[in-house]
Design a protein that fits this description.
This protein has 22 helices and 6 strands. It is mostly helical and 532 residues long. The longest helix is centred in the N-terminal third of the chain and has 24 residues. The chain has a two-stranded antiparallel ribbon. It has a two-stranded antiparallel ribbon with strand order 2-3. It has a two-stranded antiparallel ribbon with strand order 4-6. Helix 3 packs antiparallel against helix 6 and helix 15 packs antiparallel against helix 16. The chain is globular, with a radius of gyration of 22 Å.
């Protein structure tokens, strides 16, 4: 299958900082850009920085984290990233370029104008929260990266440690919240230019605090004192309290699908993984997950009466030659045309067949949801952090928030709530205060993995941090440093070729990533080897 691209809306042309194939071009002097107001820059950051272009989402997430966290599996031999083969051009276009041209460069552009435009300060702080969300994802993906000196027009940009980057993100989020809480009357405000919260400052404050809690728990095994201090500080502030606070990007376009994941689904080159299907059907032990039909389609073979298997997934990392076997054919495996997207794709006669609905799909793209915040609070509680509340109550609230969110757009009659209580209170899902820490943590992270679907970047990071949920080693690794026979998994993405060519001394410094250097089998700072 060919990688695809949908051209972004007009603001990108206003900024004239399009994608590039060289780091030098990415780091052109930001002062050369014609002065632009933050209300034009923010939508560019949100649209391009968060991969709303479907082809960029494919390169950034669908072909990497989405496979690595085992939500889905490739069913075409055209793509071998599921076998841990690294494609530099995908990572460059999907991740490296958007981060440095859309986030860092734009932040420096507005920061340089704050002295002459103090009325931009609140708008800048919202941009800072936006960048923090992207920075966490970028460093979680690559480890040590150029950060403090990036975007200043220099090609030879030093790399910074992930620890220092995280510490700076904590400070940025703290500063943003403290300033936004002042509700100063002399500040310009975003309106519909803000594609996440339409300028609602209170919701931005909740997101910043919730993101701070996410980042704090990321450090819980490697830097527990800092993690607790930052986590408890976040818990003293206002966090997301319902699905109304969910951080979602909603674009104004009407000519394309608003959700890049669903556009990728329509391209028909992947299916649900065996891990995902097994989690939906068997994890509880007695009751199927009530979200099964919300997430998964029936197999086309079952719909057509050619198979007795209603739901089935594909193993991750199959060799290309294996994909021709009948059990791995598209029609014999479940896709993601579940009811949660608001259309009746999962009904008889549709199954996993690609069937684009009439009209254009306006489903927002989720970056952080209330369910995740509940699970963050549940983990904080079992760690004894002040202000976290009751672990069981938070854990169960997270499951119910996920159910509510996934049902919000589902067609009437497409689901039942009859098994909700049984699912939550019995079997392997049920909370037991007498369980040890690891058992509780595994329950929390497993439910988070389901509850934040399809947020694969976060799901992959949490697997690497905790070792949960239970993933299966891929069938074949094309990276010789990773051996699935030893239950080994990919640890991070290596640096892109343009960095190795243009910023070689910094990108190949052997002191990077705690002295490990670079590679797909190199752990990031907060990864404490809780999995192979």
């Amino acid at each position: 299958m060919k990688l695809r691209k949908i051209f972004p809306f007009l603001v990108a042309s206003v900024l004239t900082v399009g994608c590039t194939n060289s780091f030098e071009e990415m780091n052109e002097d930001p002062m050369a850009i014609t002065e632009v107001s933050p209300d034009l820059i923010l939508p560019d950051m949100q649209y391009n920085g968060f991969h709303m272009v479907a082809g960029d989402y494919q390169r950034a997430t669908r072909l990497y984290a989405f496979l690595y966290c085992q939500y889905g599996a490739n069913v075409t031999s055209d793509f071998r990233s599921g076998n841990y083969e690294f494609n530099s051009s995908w990572a460059e276009r999907g991740m490296w370029t958007p981060y440095y041209t859309r986030m860092i460069k734009n932040m420096r552009e507005i920061n340089a104008r704050l002295e002459e435009h103090p009325e931009y300060e609140d708008m800048y702080q919202i941009m800072s929260i936006t960048t923090a969300l992207s920075t966490i994802r970028q460093t979680d993906t690559f480890g040590d990266i150029p950060y403090f000196e990036a975007g200043k027009g220099e090609v030879q940009t030093p790399y910074d440690s992930q620890k220092d980057i995280y510490y700076d993100v904590f400070q940025a989020l703290t500063d943003a919240v403290n300033l936004l809480k002042q509700k100063r009357s002399d500040q310009l405000q975003y309106g519909n230019e803000d594609m996440m919260y339409q300028g609602d400052v209170d919701k931005w404050i909740k997101l910043a605090n919730s993101l701070r809690l996410r980042a704090a728990l990321r450090l819980s095994f490697v830097d527990p004192e800092k993690a607790k201090a930052e986590g408890e500080a976040a818990l003293r502030e206002s966090l997301m309290t319902s699905n109304d606070d969910n951080a979602r990007v909603t674009t104004p376009e009407t000519s394309t699908w608003a959700n890049p994941f669903l556009d990728n689904v329509d391209w028909d080159d992947f299916r649900a993984s065996t891990t995902m299907v097994d989690m939906m059907l068997n994890y509880h032990g007695t009751v199927a997950d009530p979200r099964t039909t919300l997430i998964l389609s029936q197999t086309q073979g079952w719909v057509n009466g050619n198979s007795e298997i209603q739901y089935r997934g594909v193993p991750n990392g199959l060799p290309g030659a294996s994909l021709s076997q009948p059990e791995y054919q598209k029609e014999n495996n479940s896709f993601f045309w579940g009811y949660m997207w608001g259309f009746d794709w999962n009904s008889a006669g549709k199954g996993s067949a690609v069937s684009r609905p009439s009209g254009h799909l306006r489903v927002p793209w989720m970056l952080m949801n209330y369910a995740e915040v509940c699970f963050l609070k549940a983990e904080a509680a079992i760690r004894g952090w002040q202000g976290a509340g009751d672990a069981k109550a938070n854990y169960e609230a997270g499951i119910r928030a996920s159910l509510e969110e996934m049902r919000a757009m589902a067609p009437t009659g497409s689901y039942t709530t009859a098994d909700d209580d049984a699912y939550i209170t019995t079997g392997n899902v049920a909370w037991n205060d007498a369980d040890d820490f690891e058992t509780k943590l595994k329950k929390i992270i497993t439910q988070k993995w389901i509850g934040i679907f399809p947020n694969a970047d976060e799901a992959w990071a949490e697997f690497r941090r905790t070792g949960y949920p239970d993933l299966q080693p891929i069938v074949q690794s094309l990276d010789p440093s990773i051996n699935p026979a030893n239950n080994e998994f990919v640890k991070k993405l290596r640096y892109v070729d343009n960095e190795l060519n243009n910023n070689n001394a910094n990108a190949t410094d052997p002191s990077l990533n705690g002295g490990q250097g670079d590679g797909m089998n190199v752990r990031v700072w907060w990864d404490t080897s809780r999995y192979n």
